[in-house]
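Same chain as my last thread, 158 residues:
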Amino acid sequence: MAMTSLRSQIHRLPSLSKSLISRSSATAAASTTTCPSKKVSDRLVKLFAIDVDGRKREIVGLAGHTLLKALANNGLIDPASHRLEDIEACSSECEVNIAQEWFDKLPPRTYDEEYLLKKYARARVLNKHSRLGCQIVLTDELQGMVVAIPEAKPWDIP
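reply #2:
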């Protein structure tokens, strides 16, 4: 009897999980605007990242994925430093600096993103070039974008 009750609950979970689990992340918003092409080669977005040593590196990401994912896949940000690309779980360790000429091509910061950037800033002053990599969704318009990985804050260093 208990086994049939358990099975009926398990079968109901997939339909409930979509309505119960909501993420306020950039990827959740981007999932509704997926790229029409299914080929990976059509979704490639080439970017340039300046690492903490000042070296400019070409990185590749996929349209529809976040900048954080592209940086983590290319070894520039520790993937364990950010949980689920969820703004509520963010500690701004995925902070990047965006070159001025790319600002107009990005959506403006959300209130949550600004709050986190100010909260974890060294002097509690918002750098106008700072963005959270988890909140920037890559698109074809961002081909060639230049981002800089800032030096780790003292409290981020183990």
